[in-house]
Amino acid sequence: MKTLKTKFKRYWPLIKSLQTALLLTTGLAGYMSARCPYTTRPVVLELAGSLFLAISGSTVLNMWYDRDIDARMPRTIKRPLPAGKITPHEALIFGLIISALGVGWALTMDLLYGTVVFAGLFFDVVVYTVWLKRRTAWSIVWGGISGGMPILAGRVLGTGQLDWVGITFTIAILFWIPTHILTFSMRYHKDYRTAGVPTFPSTYGFQTTRVIIAVSSVIAAVFMGMAAYGVGMTWGYLRLMAVLSGGLLILAVSSTVRPSERVNFGLFKYASLYMLSSMLLLFA
Amino acid sequence: MKKISVLDRVLLLITGLLAAYQVAVGCNGLGTLPIASYTIGFGILLVAGLLIIILGFEVLDSPVVVIVSTVIPLSISLGLVSEHLTDFTTPYLIFAMAGFLAIVVTRYAIPPGKVATIVLAVTHGIAGILIFLLPIILSLRGDTPGGFALVGVGGALIGVGGLLLAFLKAGKPILSRDTIMTILPSLLLLMTAAFVAGFAFT
User: Fold this and answer.
1) Which of B23, B51, B54 is the closest to A240 by Cβ?
2) Are B92 and B83 within 8 A, CB to CB?
3) What is the number of other CB atoms lying within 10 angstroms of the CB of residue A33?
């Protein structure tokens, strides 16, 4: 029992629990935008289980592949792999097993759902992390697409098809990702430079990055609103979503007009809160 | 400077949730203008609460705070007027817009001086008195249920908060900055709770 507890403590940081939880929430919200969670509880539990494993698996595989980068950045040097708490072989095996379990479980539930889950994992690990992350700052587009896959997967499982609402949700998350990731890469631009990872701030400069963040925030808010309208959200909740979107836009514009580390950090945090709140509104 | 504590964050989060409820549910069934007005007022309260939670009390040092703290009473008072004093809706809408523009112009377009303070005091004062007195008068006259007077209590609390912040920003604080920051989350929560409870009676 003690060994299991120790192992859990060592492995848990590999899955970036907060990020995984946020993505899992989007997947559940995508499903609940189409189906009642109470009358389909077993499906919801299976969706949560399979998505949790697939998202966690892709995160572990990212950690495994990026261990050399993580070892060069002060922000990430204490992660389990660069800190030597887990061997690369252990992490690879763990990542492959839970990824396979997650995707396999998803495929047995529904072929289309499983395909979308697999696509998310493929875009994240192979296209984003292995192929593009070290080559171009534009890799975040693919990171964004993979970030949009959980909500699409949830929606597909709920409706049984790819519909415009699901795709609109995915686009909203695709454009939300720059707000989240670019503010982060501005905050830690020295770390990324040290590790040799191309980012928008290092490639195009801070001001251009801020403008991109502002524009992508507007697009994300518009698409989120369209999708929310598409699922039949009541006017009251749409108003609330508009208010939360307004906060996001104000911070994004402030970050462009009066840039500061504080506003940038505020935008980063608010963007996460915005996404979580939007998903909770879909639950309502 | 006082750092934001966990308790402060919890109080502000509850304030935000109450404001969110008011935006999403609390003003359903009203006309377009009251809904828009309450959405702006409580929406700003919600976003401001979230920003204080994220960035701490330092966010109150921003020059935008004066504008934001005026929009809340202006929009809530506009909602009340358009809902209960329909004959005065257009004149009050003009007053609210003119007052808001005057505050922006006197704060940012010309060098700050007494004019800016007078404009702020008049606009803020009229909006605050309306939120405080109108619900109480309507309740006493029996035009609305007695509980609606709670909106007036919220109006009194928003007035207290506005005064504390306005004098602090003007460099003549009534209470020390730390004391104001200590009571602000509780004050915002009580104010929002009074508003939400009061509006629930209409």
Assistant:
1) B23
2) no
3) 24
Chain B residues with at least one Cβ partner in A under 8 Å: 20, 23-25, 27-28, 35, 39, 43, 46-47, 50-51, 54-55, 58-59
Give chain A's end-to-end CA distance (angstroms, integer).
Answer: 39
From first to last of its 284 residues, chain A has per-residue pLDDT tens of 677 788 888 899 999 999 999 999 999 999 999 987 778 899 999 999 999 999 999 999 999 999 999 999 998 999 999 999 999 999 999 999 999 999 999 999 999 999 999 999 999 999 999 999 999 999 999 999 999 999 999 999 999 999 999 999 999 999 998 888 898 899 899 999 999 999 999 999 999 999 999 899 889 999 999 999 999 999 999 999 999 999 998 888 888 888 888 888 888 889 889 988 999 898 77
With CB atoms and an 8 Å threshold, state whether A247 touches B24.
no
Residues 6 or more apart whose Cβ sits within 8 Å of residue B45: B15, B16, B19, B72, B188, B192
Question: Is the Cβ of A246 closer than 8 Å to some Cβ of chain B?
Answer: yes
The pair of structure tokens assigned to B88 is 């005065």
**Among candidate residues B46, B45, B27, B48, the one with its CA nearest the CA of residue B36:** B27
Q: H or E element: which one contains A54?
A: helix A41-65
Number of other residues whose CB lies within 10 A of the CB of residue A206 = 16
In this structure, chain B runs to a length of 202
**Pair A248, A217: CB distance under 8 Å:** yes
Distance of CA A13 to the CA centre of its chain: 16
* ipTM of the complex as predicted: 0.90
Tokens of residue A213, six digits:
């963040």
Question: For residue A241, what are its two tokens?
Answer: 């979503």
Count, residues in chain A: 284
Q: How far is A277 from chain B (nearest CA, A)?
A: 11
- Cβ atoms of B136 and B186 within 8 Å: the answer is no
Distance (Å) from the C-alpha of residue B25 to the closest C-alpha of chain A?
A: 6
Q: Which two tokens stand for residue B30?
A: 């009203």
Is residue A56 within 8 A of residue A121, CB to CB? The reply is: no
- C-alpha distance from residue A149 to each of A46, A115, A127, A145, B135 (Å): 17, 10, 14, 7, 50
With contact defined as beta carbons under 8 Å apart, do A237 and A228 qualify? yes
Q: How far is B1 from chain A (nearest CA, A)?
A: 16
Q: Nearest 5°: CA angle at B14, between A244 and A243?
A: 15
Planar angle of CA A127, A130, A134, nearest 5 degrees: 105
pTM of the model: 0.86
